[in-house]
């Protein structure tokens, strides 16, 4: 990196391997990996960073494919300090690095219903906010109250539901905003009843999804009026392989790394699935998994 980075209280790691930080267990390195100490440190970094330095935000990598050529510029990953979860009445305040499942369990213990679906959503609150994550008929927008984010100039923003612009698997927040925390609200119920519903959803997920596999979760968004998995199955893609990448035979909308798949193989498999679905149904599947970085050999 030609220009010096600003002094921070967090840490910089140069040439940081990312494959162990993403669920696919594939991909290249980060030119620089930055873990801020707190929200003020993150804001100071943005305010002082050199112009033109590319910034990429990652969480726990549950819905992310890092290409083999790695990610140029600075990759920001919020550490555990951003993972606090607090309850106040029927509201839950969660740091952006808090696991969705941890937030669901905290709400259940407090007798707050409405968060059960988060138990089945992999990843962190930051990613859930960015993509309006959901499953089994519920989405983040259903419990959302407000979120706090830092923009690319280091300014803090408190965002309402209208500001978020939630739609299916997407929010309308500018790409340079980094979420640091959010407030959600549910409704009261007996903790045991909430836990029971939550565990029922989790059991359903374990039966219908390739739990424990090296995967990035649901690969493609459901098109209007259709299910991606059904389109993929009808196109004959169940079990399809390219190298060590395979379409799951448990759930067709999951791509899995059988062991040593490259990011290029995983992405190529996804594109082949898209081609076959387009050929058989006329529908263009849209990637739900975020693909970042450059292909191997690019600079």
UniProtKB/TrEMBL annotation:
It comes from the Bacteria. GO terms for molecular function: FAD binding; UDP-N-acetylmuramate dehydrogenase activity. Pathway: Cell wall biogenesis; peptidoglycan biosynthesis. GO terms for cellular component: cytosol. It is an enzyme of class 1 (oxidoreductase). Its EC number is 1.3.1.98. GO terms for biological process: cell division; cell wall organization; peptidoglycan biosynthetic process; regulation of cell shape. It catalyses: UDP-N-acetyl-alpha-D-muramate + NADP(+) = UDP-N-acetyl-3-O-(1-carboxyvinyl)-alpha-D-glucosamine + NADPH + H(+). InterPro entries: FAD-bd_PCMH, FAD-bd_PCMH-like_sf, FAD-bd_PCMH_sub1, FAD-bd_PCMH_sub2, MurB, MurB_C, MurB_C_sf, Oxid_FAD_bind_N. It is found in: Cytoplasm. Keywords: Cell cycle, Cell division, Cell shape, Cell wall biogenesis/degradation, Cytoplasm, FAD, Flavoprotein, NADP, Oxidoreductase, Peptidoglycan synthesis. Its cofactor is FAD. The active site is at 169, 218 (proton donor), 288. Residues 25-201 form the FAD-binding PCMH-type domain. Cell wall formation. Belongs to the MurB family. This is UDP-N-acetylenolpyruvoylglucosamine reductase. It comes from Rhizomicrobium palustre.
